TrEMBL record:
Record's keyword annotation contains Secreted: no
Keywords: Cytoplasm, Decarboxylase, Lyase, Porphyrin biosynthesis
Lineage of the species this protein comes from: Bacteria, Bacillati, Actinomycetota, Actinomycetes, Mycobacteriales
Segments forming domain Uroporphyrinogen decarboxylase (URO-D): 25-34, 142-158
Residues that bind substrate: 30-34, 79, 154, 209, 332
GO cellular component term, pick one: cytosol
Catalysed transformations (reactions): uroporphyrinogen III + 4 H(+) = coproporphyrinogen III + 4 CO2
Official protein name in the record: Uroporphyrinogen decarboxylase
GO biological process, one term: protoporphyrinogen IX biosynthetic process
Gene: hemE
Length: 353
């Protein structure tokens, strides 16, 4: 295991841990990606999966938004299906579609056939993290993984889905099979995040992208125990941990329960919920991350500036209401059409506030 870096001046780590940051920290989900011309130039020569398994490419793409925007944290360039590939699942990331699974998991036999993570298959990720720790200086590196429910949805549906109907059908009709699948995917998620932690990431984020399709009752019964085990198992690493999903307004309290074992807990909030409302649902002692609507960036700088100031003010009010800190971010990922210049100006604005 790599020795943990000491980054006492990091505004991101301070806010996540409930300390007073020198300034409001800001980074963006999908900051390393399709909005950047330098990223598109690299991707023109490499498929998404190939890029995710090339340590030098991962390092370069992760560094691009740090150089360009001056954000307060880097997030590892990867994809949530990388650990599935590391467990031998036959899949591809199809342009304009997303992850596609060759043989969806639909039966108890399919679940039993799933293998654990093979560390040898993700050595590229480990090497990339080591490279980044050396290259980032005093900028913290966030590692990440897809949450067990979101991974299960891809496996069961065979790819992206609007309704997640097959996933919910298995969950409700075959709870034994469902929990067996979630147990295996929780083990996989823990193993993949452990690889990143062992090589020096300074924080982690768990993306439960599709959890918002569930009711609170179903989330509590079928998802929360497994996500909670991820955070509880990794709490000993001593790093900040963030829990994020889309359209999860009604789930924020339950998601906060899952992450409370973390030594420094952050709940990500999408743009549909005010941070002050999120603070009430999450409860005291947990930091919030978010939550500018990514579409605002397409509306021009005056609109972006007004909206960003409102988010910062809402974040301050959320902290006054009991949240332990606020990390400025978007309420989901940067849209490909976004002007990189607006993102750079947004970082400067947030820092000035």
């Amino acid at each position: 295991m790599s020795a943990r870096r000491e980054l006492p001046e990091s505004s991101f780590l301070a806010a996540a841990a409930g300390r007073q940051p020198a300034r409001v920290p800001v980074w963006f989900m999908r900051q390393a990606g399709r909005s950047l011309p330098e990223y598109r130039a690299l991707r023109a020569q490499h498929s998404m999966l190939a890029a995710c398994f090339d340590p030098e490419l991962v390092c370069e793409i992760t560094l691009q938004p740090v150089r360009r925007h001056g954000v307060d944290a880097a997030i590892l360039f990867s994809d949530i299906v990388v650990p599935l590939r590391g467990a031998g699942v036959d899949l591809d990331i199809v342009p304009d579609v997303g992850p596609v699974i060759a043989d969806p998991v639909r039966t108890a036999a399919d679940i039993a056939a799933l293998r654990p993570l093979d560390p040898e298959r993700v050595t590229a990720v480990a090497e990339a993290v080591s490279l980044l720790v050396g290259a980032l200086g005093d900028v913290p590196l966030i590692g990440f993984a897809g949450a067990p429910f979101t991974l299960a949805s891809y496996l069961v549906e065979g790819g992206p889905s609007r309704t997640h109907a097959r996933t919910k059908a298995m969950m409700l009709a075959e709870p034994g099979s469902w929990h067996a699948l979630m147990t295996r995917l929780t083990d996989l998620t823990i193993a993949f995040l452990t690889v990143q932690l062992d090589h020096g990431v300074d924080a982690i984020q768990l993306f439960d992208s599709w959890a918002g399709t569930l009711s609170v009752a179903d989330y509590r019964s079928f998802v929360l125990p497994h996500s909670a085990r991820v955070f509880a198992t990794l709490a000993g690493a001593g790093v900040p941990m963030t829990h994020f999903g889309v359209q999860t307004a009604e789930l924020l309290g339950a998601m906060a329960e899952a992450i409370r074992p973390a030594p420094a807990a952050v709940v990500g909030v999408d743009w549909r919920t005010r941070l002050t409302d999120a603070a009430a649902r999450v409860g005291a002692g947990i930091a919030l991350q978010g939550n500018l609507d990514p579409a605002v960036l397409l509306a021009g700088w005056p609109v972006t500036e007004r909206a960003a100031r409102a988010v910062v003010a809402d974040g301050r009010a959320a902290v006054a209401a009991g949240a332990s800190g606020h990390v400025f971010n978007l309420g989901h990922g940067v849209l490909p059409e976004s002007d990189p210049g607006v993102l750079t100006e947004l970082v400067s604005l947030v820092h000035s506030l």
